[in-house]
Amino acid sequence: MKTLTRLSLTTALTAGLALPAFADIQSRTITISNGVAESHPVGNGVEAMRECIDERTDGAWTINAFWSSALGDDLTATQALRSATQEMVITSTSPLVGIEPALGVFDLPFLFSDSAEADAILDGDFGDFMTEKLADRDLINLAYWENGFRNLTNSVRPVTSLEDFEDMRVRVMQNNIFLDTFNALGTNPTPMAFGEVFTALETRAIDAQENPYVTIDTSQFYEVQGYLSATQHAYTPFLVLFSKPIFDTYSETEQEILRECAVIGRDEQRSVSRDLSDVSLANVQDAGMQFNEISDEEMARIREAVEGVYETHAESIGIDVIDRMQAELNELRGN
Question: Taking the model in full, what pTM does it have?
Fold first, then answer.
């Protein structure tokens, strides 16, 4: 009888220890805004994150994802997070430099040599440094996903030299670094929300735009653009942002679920993005786009033309931010 009593007490205590973890998870509905189409690798990342959340919460959370700027452009959606009227947005860093100027460091031309460098910086100390800055803006960055290296499409001519940029009307994201970069290249840059780009290209309000191969493919820009040039002028990460005012109301267990599942989504999204990059390049060529690479000599001229952008924006980004980025890159490269 004493043995049975001890067993009952042990069972009760064990169950009691398990209770807080479950009690810390409430039923919740989380809305996620995206500027890209669901067919983009972000869709794979969201699905991996959704599966992780469903497992970790035992189905207590509902994830509602909206695509192609259905809830507004990235900046509008991000402001909704800061005012606690929406939970999540997955956005490029570039539209948010007005909220956190230090994010402009990722827009500096020809910053990263390859995706391995980008991963090391974003998933390391520098990425944590930037995440802390975003928290001060009422934004919790759960993980860095990948938008990728950006390349130019246009409806005028192949870009094979610095001179070929001349007078093109190029859609750029709504930040001054991209404006100055494309001004330095001799184009007429036009800031525009991503959701407006296809129609502007179709009506010839603009001649060109720049994005990674996967975005060019999934957005079907091949229907309204004839030429694709491998400029790789910038690498843009995605931020997986959560409203800090809402995040702060979640239990520690729930916060940890969000962070861990965003990282699982990150790994899937990056993997799919990189696998699809070559596929997307082939797809757009099959659809009729003319593709060209640019010689090393001409790329050197193009890089030289935009060198002044670093100095122009050092103060607005923060000299300490640029110095820290360059120091970590030099260490990675063994310089």
Answer: 0.84
